[in-house]
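Morning F.,

Quick status update on the modeling queue. The single chain you submitted on Monday has been processed. Sequence for confirmation:
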Amino acid sequence: MLFRSGRDITEDAPFTPRPGDPYVASKAAGELVAMSYHGNGLEVAVVRPAGVYGAGDRTTTEPLAETLEAGKFAFIDGGRYIMAPIYIDSLVDMIHRVGTNENAAGEAFNAVDEGYTDWRDYKIGRAHV
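Structure tokens below.
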């Protein structure tokens, strides 16, 4: 399952099934399991990070940057497709704020940097993040 595509998706937007995508299904299932413990002896809050990027990330950021720079990345709609990145430092800050805020218990929080970025601008370093 995943959230429907679109901009400004709120935390209470319903999940949409996505058959055949075990990564998305496991994230949704994990969130449901975690939240099932809320109020049963635990206070639980969920942080849903967007596409995390940052210096030193050899799993995603560096390989993606190399692929983009080499011109080997197939852009959808000429690179105008909107992406939702979050810089690792911003994500760590948000996790800390959620974890130390007593009002966060029982809630889910989408973690994404401000503004919109398309793949074309991300490639040339003009991301609005």
